[in-house]
Amino acid sequence: MGSRRHALKEKLTWDIISEPSKEVVEQLMLIEASAHDDPWTYDSLMECFTDNCRCIGLYLNNELIGFCVICIIFDEAEIYTIGILKKYQGLGFGHKLLLKSLQLSKELGAKNCYLEVRVSNEVALYLYDLYGFQITGIRKNYYAATSEHPAEDAYTMACNLEEIDMNDPFLKV
Question: In this structure, are residues 56 and 65 in contact, taking their beta carbons and an 8 Å threshold?
């Protein structure tokens, strides 16, 4: 692929993954492992398929390249996890996936959206800032230590979905 301009000309589609097959969950796990230092497990991903959660799949030319799990409780949404395959990162797909997730949350009646993010994840922090997320607190040692990384704090973040202009051309990638 190589360039952002080329990537954005490809056919991009969305799908709500409601009843995943073992193969789809394995694809989700590959994306998790590619996008995160401490990826979710198969069982953790399977637990997300409930009445309150939605898993939004992002497909490029019919290949699942990213996904976001959001949970809606009453008028609040929480992003549980979001990720793009590493080879497609930096091409604007994370923007598109986040925007689609926030739009869906709003359509489902959410007024606010919450998430946690590693304090060192500058790329994600920049992206969330673009969409109006603000830091509301810190969770000490939220991310457990692994053999490759020490324990790390997380910022808790929130945004008011009613204040986001979903048609703002700046947010379109």
Answer: no
Question: 78 an active-site residue?
Answer: no
Geometric angle at alpha carbon 102, from 99 and 106, rounded to 5°: 135
Ranges of the chain with pLDDT below 70: 1-9, 168-173
The CB density around residue 46, as the number of other CB atoms within 10 Å, is: 13
Give 84's DSSP letter. Answer: E
Q: How far apart are CA 85 and CA 67, in angstroms?
A: 9
Among the listed residues 32, 78, 88, 128, the single catalytic one is: 128
Q: If 0-12 CB within 10 Å is exposed, 13-18 middle and 19+ buried, where does residue 150 land?
A: exposed
Question: What is the pairing mode between strands 12-16 and 53-60?
Answer: antiparallel
pTM: 0.87
128 counts as catalytic: yes
